Amino acid sequence: IKGLKKLKVDVIIPTYKPGKEFEELICRLQKQTYSIHRIIIINTQTGVFPTELESEPYQIEIMHIRPEDFDHGGTRNMGASISYADIVLYMTQDAVPADEHLIEKFANVFEMHPELGIAYGRQLPREDCNIIERYTRRFNYPEKSRIKSKVDLPQLGIKTFFCSDVCAAYRRNYLLSAGGFEDPTIFNEDMIFAGKRILAGDKVAYVAEAKVIHSHNYTGSQQFHRNFDLAVSQAQHPEVFEGVPSEGEGIRMVKATAKYLIRSGQPLKIWNLVYQSGCKYIGYFLGKRYEKLPKWVVLKCTSSIKYWKKS
Fold this sequence. Notes:
This protein is of the alpha/beta class. Helices cover 42% and strands 17% of the residues. The protein has helices spanning 20-29, 74-82, 102-112, 131-140, 153-156, 172-177, 189-199, 220-235, 238-241, 247-263, 270-288, 295-301, 305-310, and strands at 9-16, 38-44, 60-65, 87-91, 96-97, 118-124, 146-148, 167-171, 204-213. Helix 1 links the parallel strand 1 and strand 2 (38-44). Helix 8 packs parallel to helix 11 and helix 10 packs antiparallel against helix 11. The protein is globular and about 50 Å long.
């Protein structure tokens, strides 16, 4: 592999109060088989930041921004605008490469498929991940790679647009020439961009061999807030999501998870599943109708209060 490196890859990581997982992420990025051109960290200032990174000899560039200047789409656009690599790989601070081949697997896909502009990786559960979330990871991130396009909409529905900036790579010129991510956006900048590009006739690659360890044991309340924001993002972009409802895919996942719990000998966990799914659905239902809600209700439902105060 060494000597065949053609594409320059920059890794862009927005951070907010980064912890131990972030240090592990940087450590593992430095051990990749495919050389990284630069790691660009855009840190939301809080006074909490591992200062040893400031003097790190590795190619790390750190920018600090004010909390009020952070935006899910705009901050990532900023990272792409200061990069001059061929590929920009976005990661979150709590996603840790599962092995030393993460960058190599993305680079190989872009080299093999010059028509591709977007690729995202597989997310594996952490050791402390609960059984429901563990199955959700398997459901959303299967073992087999595939390239998705508009022809998959009848079969995959909303999953056709699925993409996650927890670990997703873009040809930089492609991203910028298509207008970059939506800015401002409450959430879901990755799927909005991928959905627009698929509807325009482009393709998105799911690269199962590019693996990161990333999962959360969200409470019902957190699921409610996340799904409210997700639904707001979809309601704000009817040109992408209007003809492709999410509810059917959600029901399919709940049924599949329930069957898995029964097979695993944990049928009592179905009550947890029903509760979590109910929280998700209520959040999603309200988020889809956010324009009809009083502002104070919206502020109670969202997990992105800063977004509403700016908008």
